[in-house]
């Protein structure tokens, strides 16, 4: 190719590249202007400034230019790139701010709207009764003792003066795991275990917990229920100590003007044994449906610890004595809260449970 012709070709090429560059710049700027969000803006960035974009292509084509034209064209391309980049960044800032503003607007909280009520649960009425009794006795220097619900026949019966074949076992039919292992029928085995562990020391405990009987469930019977038993052993523990303790318990649970009366009864593990009644908290003794017209309500069984029970646990009945009592938490809760069916305590019906409003702060 003659030199002049080649020069004309190059002039044309430079002119063509400049034209193309201006066109690309205008296109890019228009698209940046039109970008509605950051994603669209990024698409423009990739399309025009990316490695596969037209501006990079133009740079690759610079090899066709003369050594003099190349730097000029290079500078021009850089100017366009810088310009497009600057406009793009400005636009990006604007779009980012807009996105933040939109997010804030959509998430704004109207503080004048009423709040949503958060449902707060109550303590179960049985838990409430047990905790009240625990508080009372802990305040009188008792310890809380617990033991296994799956228990040995020995601790559940034998150590409590109920040898195999004893007729009183019939009143406490249980669920047997094996001949020697059963679900405990009362919390008394905790007393037997504590006496065994204390090895002759004085004792002042209450034992709350689940117990089991093979009963058919009805309004007043449940195969599972909660008991709270108390045991005091030491020198000079007398029936009057038991009576004073039960009187305190009755007044705490059912009101300061309650009176108690003790009636003779029988339990294999206590001698003498008593049933405790309280004067009716509804009618005050005149007779009503709660006390079935008698003016008295049966609350619990108690007695002086049987000498055999003391002896089996390693205590000398000639030196020490003790008393024990047992309360059904359900019976207390039914009387206190006017519940007519024991099964309500175990059906987890929130309509029932929510009636016991929180009273504690
Ligand atoms: Zn009454």
Automatic annotation (TrEMBL):
GO terms for biological process: phenylalanyl-tRNA aminoacylation. This is Phenylalanine--tRNA ligase alpha subunit. It is found in: Cytoplasm. Belongs to the class-II aminoacyl-tRNA synthetase family. Phe-tRNA synthetase alpha subunit type 1 subfamily. Mg(2+) binds at residue 271. One of its GO terms (molecular function) is phenylalanine-tRNA ligase activity. GO terms for cellular component: cytoplasm. PANTHER family: PHENYLALANINE--TRNA LIGASE, MITOCHONDRIAL, PHENYLALANYL-TRNA SYNTHETASE. Residues 127-335 form the Aminoacyl-transfer RNA synthetases class-II family profile domain. Tetramer of two alpha and two beta subunits. Keywords: Aminoacyl-tRNA synthetase, ATP-binding, Cytoplasm, Ligase, Magnesium, Metal-binding, Nucleotide-binding, Protein biosynthesis. Its EC number is 6.1.1.20. It catalyses: tRNA(Phe) + L-phenylalanine + ATP = L-phenylalanyl-tRNA(Phe) + AMP + diphosphate + H(+). Its cofactor is Mg(2+). Binds 2 magnesium ions per tetramer. InterPro entries: aa-tRNA-synth_II, aa-tRNA-synth_II/BPL/LPL, Phe-tRNA-synth_IIc_asu, Phe-tRNA_ligase_II_N, Phe_tRNA_ligase_alpha1_bac, Phenylalanyl-tRNA_Synthase, tRNA-bd_arm.
